[in-house]
Design goal:
Layout (H helix, E strand, L loop, with lengths): L20 E2 L11 H11 L11 H11 L6 E4 L1 H13 L5 E6 L4 H9 L2 E6 L7 H6 L5 E7 L11 H10 L5 E5 L14 H7 L3 E6 L12 E4 L2 H9 L8 H12 L1 H25 L10 E4 L5 H10 L2 E2 L1 E3 L3 E5 L3 H22 L1
Parallel strand pairs: 1-10, 3-4, 3-5, 5-6, 6-7
Antiparallel strand pairs: 2-8, 7-8, 9-12, 11-12
The protein binds pyridoxal-5'-phosphate.
The site of pyridoxal-5'-phosphate has 14 residues, from helix 3.
């Protein structure tokens, strides 16, 4: 018998077509560094062998980088893959998983696939409503996911807000801090997720190589948390699902972190430049901790997206809530800003 089908909600990332600017998937606009490409090429000569299913070298490199014992680290096929392992490990019929909505589209998909019940708590002012989320926890809640910064709105939860929330969560309920965009955050008040894990066994941090490290195409993510929980999560992995090429590239990326983070710096500078320009054009855009910006356009979303699409600039639409635009290279961002300026002008004219 088939389980209740979860179904995918998302459309293709980009329409097929000729020249296009892809600002729709929060990817890094930068190609692989030479040292990472070299690691990939060298690993490619061994694809006749199964990969290391214990991810030994990568777990060691991550543990060293983040100052945690190796038993606190689980690796998977993208952070979506790791989240699926977590849900597999703790899901049981009747279990509830609480997360904010709107947030990352993989949450409803993966919770649905696991057979657990999703409990979606609406954002307030584009931000996590942690009071409502704490109130949504019942004795059936096995996990809460906090997307920080939140995709697609870019908003962040502060250290004080998060600590207050964690103090209210029962210790048998896992809190997963999805920090996919951590490297792009510059806010001093941003919580130290890894530090919070240390004192609290029911807190885990989820990270990815897909965004700041520019490896979305290779699928590597990881979880840091309590060793008992990590052991259960590791046990839920699909055998050999992180390829030898992906593992080698992730190790090489950690070794090239300085170079990669200087790219992050330039993306952050572009993010701030694009947001200032949008504000000056009259748009409302919440401050973002990620490599993307959120424009809450409401009913105007569809026509705005159509105009972008027609100009070959692909952004991501979310129903009639708004659009998310990823930060690309300066000339790509300028192409988006030109479209935004034209739309702002048109809006002013029709309001007159
Ligand atoms: C992009 C993103 C991820 C990364 O997913 P991968 O499976 O690692 O590519 C995770 N969480 C959020 C909120 C994201 O936006």
């Amino acid at each position: 018998m088939l389980k209740r089908s979860a179904g995918r909600r998302t459309a293709p990332l980009v329409a097929s077509g000729a020249r296009s600017t892809r600002l729709s998937a929060n990817e890094s606009p930068f190609g692989p560094l030479p040292s990472v490409l070299e690691a990939i090429q060298s690993a490619a000569s061994e694809i006749n062998r199964y990969p290391d299913d214990e991810h030994t070298a990568l777990v060691a490199a991550l543990a060293a980088r983040f100052g945690v014992p190796q038993a606190h680290v689980a690796v998977g096929s993208g952070s979506a893959g790791v989240l699926q392992m977590v849900l597999e490990a703790l899901g049981e019929p009747g279990a509830e998983v609480v997360y904010a909505w709107r947030s990352f589209g993989a949450y409803p998909l993966l919770v649905g696939l696991s057979g657990a019940t999703a409990v979606e708590v609406p954002l307030g002012d584009d931000k996590h409503d942690l009071i409502a989320m704490a109130n949504a926890i019942t004795d059936k809640t096995r996990a809460v996911i906090i997307c920080n910064p939140n995709n697609p709105t870019g908003t962040t939860v502060s250290r004080a807000e998060l600590e207050r929330f964690l103090n209210e969560v029962p210790t048998d309920c896992l809190v997963i801090l999805d920090e996919a965009y951590r490297e792009y955050v510059q806010d001093e008040d941003f919580p130290d997720g890894l530090g919070l894990c240390r004192g609290r066994p029911n807190v885990a941090v989820l990270r990815t190589f897909s965004k700041a490290y520019g490896m979305a195409g290779l699928r590597v993510g990881f979880l840091v948390g309590d060793p008992d929980m990590v052991a259960a999560v590791r046990a839920a992995r699909l055998p050999f699902s992180v390829t030898n090429i992906a593992q080698a590239a992730a190790v090489a990326s950690l070794a090239a972190e300085d170079e990669l983070l200087s790219r992050v710096e330039s993306t952050v500078a572009e993010r701030d430049r694009v947001r200032s320009a949008l504000l000056a054009q009259g748009w409302s855009v919440p401050p973002s901790g990620g490599n993307f910006l959120w424009l809450p356009l409401g009913e105007a979303t569809a026509s705005y997206v159509a105009a972008c699409q027609a100009a070959g600039v692909h952004v991501r639409a979310f129903g009639s809530d708004g659009i998310r635009v990823s930060i690309g290279l300066p000339e790509e961002n300028d192409a988006f800003l030109d479209l935004a300026a034209a739309a702002a002008e048109q809006k002013m004219r029709s309001a007159r």
